[in-house]
Amino acid sequence: MTRDERMLERNFDRIGHQVPLPAEPSDEQVARWTGGSSGGATRRRNRTMLRKLFVTGGFGIAAAAAIVFTMLAQSPSVASAAQIFAEARSAIERLRLARIEFRDVVWKHYRLNLTAHVAMNESGELESARIQTRNENVPFGYDEPDFSIQWDMEGSDHEHTFVSSPTGAWSYLKLTRLAEDFAERNPDANLLAPLVEAAKAGAYVDRQRRLGGKAVWFTANLNVIGLADREKFSKLVRAVEQKAAVIEVEHLDGGRMVLRASDYQGRTGEVFQLFTWQGRQDDLIDEIFSKAIFEVTIGKDGIEKIRITNVAHGGEIEASFDERINDFDATRLMQVEEMKRVPGEVISAELLRKLKPGGRKE
Amino acid sequence: MLFQGDIESRAADGNPPLPPAPMKHADLLAVFQAAARGLYRYVVVRLDHDHAAADDLMQQLWLEISRDAGSGISAAGDAEAWMRGVARNLVRRYWRTLTRPGRGRPMADAAIAAELAEVLDREELPSEFLQRSETREQILLALTLLPADDQDLLIRTHFRGERQDDIARELNITVRAVEGRLYRARRAMRDLLSHLDPNEAS
Description:
heterodimer; A: five-stranded antiparallel beta sheet; three-stranded antiparallel beta sheet; 27% helix; B: mainly alpha; 10 helices; 0% strand
């Protein structure tokens, strides 16, 4: 070994001793990036039909359309599912919502035919949206890994992520920018610091366990809530920090929000969470969540049902869970094609019941 | 998967060469998994050590990769470089879409990197030089540009102090082969430092 080589080697030792490396990802993390299952047992157990949903909000500040559609799922196919969503996203971004068609796409044990008609007016507001799906069973003979799909809202602080796997499906708003949001809006956000740190440390990554499973939606909601006065939500925040132990009634000024929740551990019926969000002038969040009503019904095994009624966009999502929070058991989509949008109006359950998935009235 | 050798031998037989076929999903997955830690380091260093963002971006990276299915990629080495290219674009997109671009963004400083490369095999690096965040940044930027195998080898040897014979045993190669690979990896990193692209960080 020459002198140069020895010096190079010694200097690399010095570098190694003095330069800190970033933390390495865990094996589970690596597996999850590619949709690797972290819950094989649950996957085997969870062979019942899953219906999964995703919601995408507007792309960019102006586009505030909510597209919702259901897909039937049993066991996923990585490539085809990813392609479907990638194509959808591409089409939506390119055409700013127009017409998207998928024909004979095999996805998760089903042959999927999907047509989405969406139209926006010149102001970027959603004029109408209609999704039609036709799903057929196709032969299935192999085990495929999980997958995950991300929708990011470029130009915004927030990312809406849809994650799906045989062990479940969930949707959440990304937390990574939360610290920045709070730093900007709430310099004294100590209350949220543990949550933010947890998120930074990857808590949301494995949220169903590390945030106590049922905290998924709390996480999502917190991002919205975070835009408002944190003091109003201190109990919720603490509940999340404590793995969603107790969330109590909060009535906010002007009746803008009602939050009612309690311990979901083993309780039935009495546990109920509801909040209405009237929206602030916070661009995208305002667009998507304005005048939306979230109802979460929590049973003895966790959240049983989530209903989101988005008045502004004339649609409703209802998701039920079996076994665990992140197992969507049934998702019913109702796109209200011709519903007039009246600010402040809540779509009546009666009207929604008259609608069939796909936006067609009975 | 069709490897370059298959294409060449086909041409030698007088048949028209086939275009490189897209990698099969399983092959692509294997390459990604093998390179995942190196790619993650690449990403997290360029995202100012924001592990949560890096984690998200890695998922996104896999989606992008699986969507393109490695079109035209015919060997594992090529595939890893291609994946790093995709990661690079995602990192750039990440910084572009930030509300306040530039905050916390790692900066490649060609002058500091070149200075470091210059002295690396000539004199002992002063501790104060290594304690400067700018210096560390250049080191990490260059280190994470290396192929994942080389990164791992350097990290195990110099950062974690693992013994070369242990590494050799684990990799099922001779100690001499480990020494040779280490030598080449150190040289490669030194070369990267001496020509660090100012745009490398993002």
